[in-house]
Amino acid sequence: MIIDRSHRGWFIASLILLAVGGLLYVPYAFLSTAGVGGGSVPGIIYGSVGSAMMIFAGLLGARKKYRTWRLGRATWWMRGHLWLGFLSFPFILFHAGFRLGNGPLTRVLMALFLVVFISGIVGAVLQHFMPKMMTERVSMETVFDQIDSVLDQLVTEAAQIISDIAAAVEHQIEREEAAEELLPASGRARKAGVVTAPDERVSGQITSFFQSQMKPYLLSRHTRKYFLGNPIQASTAIQQLKVLVPQSLWAKFDDLENICEEKRELERQRKLHKILHGWLLIHIPASYALIFLGVVHAVLALRY
Amino acid sequence: MEQDFSATFVPRQQIQITIDGKPFIIDRTRGETTTIFEAAQKCGITIPTLCHQQNEKPVGVCRLCVVDIGQRVYAASCVRHIEPGMQVKTSTDDIKSVRRTLLELLMADHPSPCARQKLSADCELERLALQAGITASPFGPRATHRGHDDSSLSIAVDHEACILCDRCIRGCNEIRHNFVLARRGKGYQAGIAFDDNLPMGTSSCVSCGECMVCCPTGALTNKVVVDTKLGEGDRVALQELQKEEVFRGVSGTFLNLNSNAVRKRTYRPGEVICKEGDYGSTAFYILQGQAEVFLSSPLAHVNTKGQNGFFTKLKSILEPGNASQTSNQPRKRYIPTDGPVDLAQDNRLALLEAGDLFGEMTCMNYYPRSATVRAKTECVVLEMLRNVLDIMRRNRSFRARIEQNYRKRALESHLRGIPIFSSVTSDFVGYLRDRVELRQYSPGQLICRQGDPSHSFFLVRIGFVKVTETHPGGDLVLAYIGRGGFFGELSLLGGGVRTANCIALDHVEAVRIPVEDFNLMLDRFPDVRRGLEAVAHERAVENRQRFAQIQSVPVDSFLAQGLMEAQSLLLLDLDKCTRCDQCVRACADAHDGVSRLIRDGLRLDHYLVATSCRQCKDPLCMVGCPVGSIRRRNSLEITIEDWCIGCGLCANNCPYGNINMQPFQVQSDDPAHPGRKIAEVKTKATACNLCPDHDEPNCVYACPHDAAHRVNPREFFADLARQTGKGIFRP
Amino acid sequence: MPRVRTTKSLAKRIDLQYFTRRDAFRRWRLWLSLGIPVVAAGWIIYATGSRNQNLYTKGPLSSAHAVLTTNCNLCHVRAASYRAPVPDKACLSCHDAPPHNPRQTFTPACSSCHVEHMGKARIGETSDSACTQCHSDLKTTDGQHSVDSRVSGFDKKHPEFAVLRADRSDPGTINLNHYLHLQPTVRGPRGAVQLVCEDCHRPTNAQDAWPYSVAVVQPASQQPIVVGVADSQQQKRRSVKAGAGAYMASIRYVNQCAACHVLQFDRIIPEPAPHDKPEIVHAFIVKQYTDYIATHPDARRLPVLAIDDGMPPGLTQSILRPTGNESVTLASSPSDWVQQRTAEAERLLWNKNCKICHISTEHPGSGLPESVKAVIPGRWLPRAEFDHAAHLMLTCEACHASIRNSRKTSDTNLPSIGLCRQCHKQAGASKLAAEGRCFECHSYHDWRKERRVNGIMDITQP
Fold it and tell me: Can you state the angle between helices B515-524 and B426-433, rounded to 10 degrees?
């Protein structure tokens, strides 16, 4: 979610909440007889408010599961998650009296909380510029889960093009040979020295290029070891193949180059997508643990 | 300045022929061809045929239509063209005995009564045989049997009854373009085959039913009646339908199959039959009674005022319009309707009678109802879906009647309704009445091409014509001309070359006025010429403005993706979208686990135009649905009803891949164990219908990043341009 | 032919059921989301199983209570079925801590002031707000209060020390002029001396001999003088052990004054009069004269006072001494001489010498003087504790700056509270200053009423 002007309402409400919480904290900090801490009445209130915010933030996951239920627009929930989740940090700090945990449980809780909070901020920051980056740098984007399937289809397409080229080349050879038969003997002798026509080696070369370079490149996930991953080298290689065939077939090689380009872009998309979504693998498990341990903490703290 | 149009004058031809001793003059445009059969039909003489179907290319295989033209051999009248001075004899004794022999030969092999005869009593072969007085054939039956094919779910194939007339093949190829049927074999083994002679059920046959409808005998009959539900009204029995004049000539098998697509409805006096502005998909044919057609909404326009504040309220007020405000000329104006009459602006009331068909445009093209129809006396009407109307329109006699109706009642008001032509006098219209030609165009058919010489002026009777200008990136649509509109006049004024492409957007019927009559009109009524010249000038100015506007827009991508067509796009803002798939999952959650949206497609600047139904103005998907299940009910969105048979035509037709075929499991009767149900996998088409049950589609509702929007593309991009102050796209 | 990219061709590539399958990301998310809470749960269960309640501790215990770390239940007494707060009776099972004032309107709970689980901090170091919750707006059960009703911290609204307020003065009745005593010209036992503070003022646990005590003028074989006796005047407070150098030893004639203010009354009698009740002094004088006249029978001449009949001006001590005037009347008998001489000596003593320091009046009956009790305060700040030993680094005059110019007995030469605030700031160590919180000087609990409590903790035998 991108935080823009439409968040004004939430931002102002959060500021107000924070101000209220902070202003109430000041006298509490100065006047409390037992000092600030989670166990005092204001401390418990801060803790409850902070936990309520955390739980609301956690409910986003549940909301996303029941997407079609009319429980409020997903956008609204996301905004709540961002702002209330952000606010829960100062409130928990107020609850803890700005101490980062003293006993083992509270230390772990604070550590987990920091992990969740910071990973959340990282995620939010990523969402501000990475989608745009993806849009700009991957023009032939597709659905992430289907990248492998699309690559298979690209292989099929490329194979088809290659066989078309090979067939066209061989057809050309046949025609050349047939044309040669009709030439006078002298003409043939003259021609024999000059290899201008494509011969069998060419189609073999093209096919082997496909089999040994292009196809493994398209299907592989570790593309560094293939020179086709580098656009300039790929272009050069394709050029070298192009000169072997008549000009009418050059357009097909452009298609092959475009396929390589698409592969490059899809790999780029894969990488960017993983970055854009990777932080969730920290944020979500940590938040589950946080909520579980938070409940344990609340239950036991109220006991004592 | 007088212009000499003689160079562009296209001469008409008058050919004189004699049929059965009577001389006839066939009047047609030079360059056209007419077969003897057509000529005879025009002169009212019917020649019996078996293999000839009026909407198919004639092949002349049955030889039943042979006529004597004085040559060595008889000519098959369905294929043979007339020539001036031809002497045709259609029913000499010899010819009659030839026909009889043919029929006897055919009847010898025919398993009489065949399935069709049993079902709807309209096997053409048996009917002709009966007319010729053949009860039993003197010839022996064939020794080899070609068998039956019951593999198809909806069509029963009885090769024994097939007379190899090729109608089904032509129907499948020419009309439906499915190319499933062909001939196979030789001699006695000759027959029709599906694909590589596969059983029909396993072939690529899509069960559209065209072959079955074309078949004159019981070789192809329908098995299962599709459970179309039209709603209220009484089901009409097959025999009753066949008795109606409008269905004369329509295949009984077809009527049987589609008897649920036609309903007889009775309306009390004062009851509203249809309301203007409603979306619908049916046409009405009045059997008895009278109905009034009028417009009930006031002649006013709506003004919306927005109030800026924390809560924005939109207030709409109706501002009454002045008659003089809307038209500059104090002449009579006519409002075109989707029926046989137009309504005068000052008296927006007209009468419809028995034999009138209205709602054609709504039925064929899914446009909203153009007027309100209310029964004046007790009315009995037939309400029908598109496929039935389609068949009716193919029927020549029906069409002829409709055309006559039009000429009598609507042409004048139609012509005079156009302000420019309002000074044309009645007697001139009377002159034009018989000289105009009503032409039908199928969707996408080019009526006239930019740059071609122009020979005619067109009024649009029903349907929409798209006027486009060819540009490097594609064609830019200049206008859509609907009923009551006209086109082609500019080129006639300006030197005889068409200035734009005119393409039939849907099923169009246009009134063609030949250029010489047009010129006559211009000469007789100088007002008209002046008016036309003014319009021409305006249009030129508009075009220049539009062109300037186009410069700022990468028109090619807009056009290439067909975005001008769309009325509602699902745009995913790629700068906000985190590719989380919530939209797709929400759509699937709301629709039985099947998503109707795909998150891939072409981009427009930083928006991804998701592959999801665009509610096109011209819904190509609807063209050809054999059971009329894909339609617009009462509102914008396109719905696929439950009775979709999964033929996949709509999916094929949609140029954006927005319709997908999904396999569903249904419980259907087990043929092996009657009374028990078995799970069967059927495919059905699915398309986005904008989630009408909610005020926001589920995909938009579920997007957590505010990236998904359902927008009207024109308004959206116009707003964007206004907001950013730049062109539609970011720099 | 360029590659075809239309919406339809792109859409056709996508398998419509892709989102129903769980891809690597969702698998990882699922397993991690299950795994990490399971690990956390396992930790909790393990802790519960091993009865380790320390998991839930708010922080380490103070050093004094560190032994209770594994015995949470000693303090966290189970009240209702679920809650286990720390009630007062839990604390009182080991400590007796009587409240300080019977008129206080409420008794705060132990835990409201003494916060545990704050680590090694001393639990007795309560925050100021524990005190100011009452004292910032003091209300008592009967409406009377003997201290300022608005005390809210040392830096701010703490009243001036009671003894230094305008209407108060040193209640001591022994005349003393510090200015004079600090001149370098005061006459000591062997000539002019420069007195320093510690010649007279020493902490109670000082072991070395007083420089100007009786022992200086009397040989050691004479009356042994006890020095360094704990002053019974002091009201013992717990935290600062009297006798550890907190308070100064009381001023006693025998320790600080005797060597200079010798009570010799007659040149002929070398022994000074005892610093005791007048009857004893009288008896001593009579005996001395009697013994003298017995041994010096020809000394029966009446002494002539070297001074006028009135008292000499000033407070210099005088002593009877013979003059050069020969016309002296002989006493008729030794007892007469004794009587006369005693009267003269007593006249000198009662009317002059004693009055140098004491305020005395003549008792009408016996003719002997009656001195007002010397109420030299042993503790000047009765409601607070002050430890001189903690202030060793300072010179005496750093705080008692006014002593050099103090000429009047009624001067209280104590530093004002403002001086203390120079070092003692409320924020204490965090403000790079000395501790300034309430507990540094005051004590809530009235330790005088403390009773012994028998502890309840048990240890498993090895």
Answer: 170
**CB–CB of A50/A26 below 8 Å?**
no
Q: Is there a contact between B392 and B299 (Cβ–Cβ < 8 Å)?
A: no
Residue A276: other Cβ atoms inside 10 A:
20
Structure tokens at C133: 């919750």
Strands B569-573, B708-711: parallel, antiparallel or unpaired by DSSP?
Answer: antiparallel
Question: What is the bridge-based pairing of β-strands B272-274 and B372-375?
Answer: antiparallel
Burial readout B356-374 (b: 16 or more C-beta within 10 A, e: otherwise): bbbbbbbbbbbbbbbbbbb
Tokens of B21: 């001793």
**What are the tens digits of pLDDT across the range C127-179?**
888 888 888 888 888 877 777 778 887 877 788 888 888 777 788 888 888 99
Q: Are B156 and B148 contacting, i.e. CB atoms less than 8 angstroms apart?
A: yes
Listing DSSP states for B647-670 in one string gives: --HHHHH-TT---EEEEEEEEEE-
Q: β-strand B638-640 against B630-632: which pairing, if any? A: antiparallel
Give the residue from B102, B541, B600 showing the smallest Cα distance to C6.
B600
Q: Which residue has the higher pLDDT, A273 or B393?
A: A273
* Cβ within 8 Å, pair C60-A150: no
Residue B306 is predicted with a pLDDT of 33
The closest of B372, B368, B381 to B349, measured between CA atoms, is B372
More confident residue, B330 or B513: B513
**Gap between the Cα atoms of B53 and B219, Å rounded:** 16
| Mutation site, A10, A64, A65, A75, interface B, largest B CB count within 10 A | A75
- Report CB contact under 8 Å: A149, C13: yes
**C-alpha span between C194 and B223 (Å, rounded):** 139
Partner-chain contact B606 A273, CB within 8 Å: no
CB contacts, 8 Å: B588 with chain C: 19-20
pLDDT at B98 over 90: yes
What token pair was written down for B378? 């007790």
> C316 falls in which pLDDT band (50, 70, 90)?
low
Strand intervals (E) in C70-171:
none
What is the residue whose two structure tokens read 């802790």?
Answer: C47
Question: Pairing relation of β-strands C434-435 and C424-425?
Answer: parallel
| 3-state helix vs strand vs coil in chain A, percent to 5 | 80, 0, 20
Q: Which residues contact A177 (CB under 8 A, 6 or more apart)?
A: none
User: CB–CB of B441/B508 below 8 Å?
Assistant: yes
User: In degrees rounded to 5, what are phi and psi of residue C135?
Assistant: -75, -15
Report phi then psi at B380, rounded to 5.
Answer: -110, 120
Contact call for A1 and B704, based on CB within 8 A: yes
CB B447 within 8 A of CB B465: yes
Tokens 């945990």 -> residue:
A101
pLDDT for res C251: 82
**Mutual orientation of helices A74-96 and A104-137 as an angle, nearest 10°?**
150
Beta bridge partners of B573: B607
Contacts of A253 in chain C (CB under 8 A): none
User: Of all residues in chain B, what percent are helix, strand and coil, respectively (each to 5)?
Assistant: 30, 25, 45
Q: Please tell me whether the peptide bond between B113 and the residue prior to it is cis, using omega within 30 degrees of 0.
A: yes
Q: Which amino acid is at C285?
A: I
Is the Cβ–Cβ distance between B374 and B291 less than 8 Å?
A: yes
Say what the pLDDT of residue B676 is.
Answer: 80
Token pair of A303 as six digits: 């006991």
C-chain CB neighbours of A150 within 8 Å are: 13-14
pLDDT band at B633 (very low <50, low <70, confident <90, very high): low
Search chain B and give the residue with CA nearest A141. B600
